[in-house]
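We include this case.
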Amino acid sequence: MKTLTREAQELAAAAQKTAPSFPALRRRFLEQRQRENVALNNREWEEKKTILSSTPQRIFLQINAVCNADCVFCSKGYDYPLFRIDEYREKYGEQVTPVLQKAREVILTGSGEFLGLPDAPKIIRYFNEEFPHVEKYIATNASHLKPEIVDLIAGSGSRYTLQLSLHGSDEATHKQMMRYNAYPRVMENVRRLIEARGRSGNISVSFMFVMTTLNVENLPDFVRFAKEMGAERVLAGYFYIYESQQKYLSLYFKQDLANRIIDEARRVAEEVGIEVRLPHKFGQPPETAAKPTSCIEPWHQVMINPDGAILPCDVYGGFNENLNQKSFMEIWNGPAYRAIRTALRSGGGCLTTCPRHNPIGINDWRAHVIHRPKEDRQIAKEYREALRKP
């Protein structure tokens, strides 16, 4: 047998060292499929097709958990199903995995505090290993951002965005909004995350502020606080009413105050140099706040609950579709989704009162109320009660 020269042996050894590993080859393959699906999904959105060959590029996976906070604005009840990764994989993995593989982003959040689950490290490892090419988005109150969790995120090789639900720039406001005594621990965890971002380069950090009558005047200081802490951006949005007794928190009844604070927060953001995403102001004339022609979400996104329920978005009303009764594609291109897309093609449907995508809709009381999943008579009752001004 002919033996290799020393030079050939060295070249062969170098080739072995530089040859792509199976995980690297798999990631390239998945990234190619992802690019093709996202491009097709964008084309089908532009053409406003009602039956799609693409699958959604954003998957909102509801990872429900017990929560250690008791936020004044929370929609969480006590009868929702908790997320269990093994149960999820057994029931829905076969259907959802091919869709997730072609998605651009997976949002890992839900009712409660996801990172407080005992299985949180296991869940993060699963999504890191199975979907390394898909961007991850986690919403958390930061109380469980322990070193193990931060290391799993920073060392994942995936892009991560963490939305930190803080809602106040100081301990008193934080406690008033979230009703628990975790501020020192939360601040320690936030600093740990910011330090890890500097080392890894794969983490983006947003500070979240739900605007209510209790804390809205703190928003400009919150923008400064976010900049000082090292966040990339501030996300601020109106509080949604889930129960009639929560109406006192709604800025629908304090519109002049809301508009003034939004202007001030924007000015502070420009002054300190931080991105800020603010909601539409109340009472804007049509010429400065034109209604959009459609909403992108029923083309780009799907929400999946732990019990298999499917929703087009987090503020949509009743939607009676479930993976336990139909396959994913039967739902994605089924009558309910087609009806939503058809209505939105002409600028109608849920867009009329959408609090996020329709600037004029924000002036409508219905844009501030979430009716899911209540009977019509309960909705009507709470509607009448809530319109009694505080």
Summary: The beta strands are 58-62, 105-109, 135-140, 160-165, 203-211, 233-238, 275-277, 301-304, 309-311, 321-322.
